[in-house]
Amino acid sequence: MGLRERKKAQTHAALSWAAIRLTVERGFDKVKVEDIAEAAGVSPRTFNNYFSSKAEAIAFRHLDRCLRVAEALRERSDEPLWDAITDSVLRHFASDVESMAHPPAADVAQWTAGVRVMVAEPALRGEMLRAGAVAEAEIAAAVAERTGGDLEQDLYPHLVASAVMGAVNTAIAHHLRTDAAVPVRRLLTDALALIAAGLSTP
Asked: Is the pLDDT at 192 greater than 70, yes or no?
């Protein structure tokens, strides 16, 4: 990735994190594009060059992680499929290194409560579904490449991609839903192991 691409990726991430942080802290309706741009250190015009709405900026974090999973599957072609899937998902979803550098909330319970409210926002749900569909298609394409399958004709790549996205979404939802806040890494590890046992590589 060249310098220009890295800078664009950093701006995308900064805007998305700012949108998430402010929405968690204040509520979706109390955050303006101008607020997000200011928090990310850019102009509102720059925000509009990257995203068409607050919801798209928030959903970008989820989309970006999923697309990184697909990218990793293509790069790790010498590993067994489900080992590569599990390692890639855990690396991009269970590691909190990046999130710990951005969030703001000293009170983890308060942050989690705010995330629960954010993901229930009707205006965000449609954008999250769109992001999930884009990511699922990309993961399916990566699986088809690895297995030598036909993306248009074969069921397997699409079934695997749907299962992976289902595992991710269910693990995150369960993490947010439970008072004990079971670590996402453990939930993802268990979910993917169960799926892999029944979806062996053809």
From this structure: yes
Q: What is the pLDDT of residues 56-104, one digit of tens each?
A: 999 999 999 999 999 999 998 889 999 999 999 998 886 554 454 455 5
Query: What does each C-alpha distance from 135 to 106, 130, 165 come to in angstroms?
Result: 31, 9, 8
Residue 43 CB contacts under 8 Å (≥ 6 apart), including other chains: 37
Helix, strand and coil percent figures for the chain, each rounded to 5: 80, 0, 20
The number of C-alpha atoms within 13 Å of 25 and in the hemisphere containing its C-beta is 16
Task: Copy the structure tokens of residue 103.
Answer: 């969030």
Q: Which residue has 């990310």 as its token pair? A: 40
| Rounded distance between C-alpha atoms, residue 48 and residue 52, angstroms | 6
Tokens linked to 141: 């394409």
Cβ(96)–Cβ(108) below 8 Å: no
> Which pLDDT score, from 0 to 100, does residue 1 have?
64
Q: Residue 143 corresponds to which tokens in the numbers above?
A: 């699986």
Residue 29 per-residue DSSP state: G
CB 181 within 8 A of CB 175: yes
Q: What is the mean pLDDT of residues 185-200?
A: 90
Domains detected in the chain: 55-198 (1.10.357.10)
CA-closest candidate to residue 192, choices 180, 169, 137, 97: 169
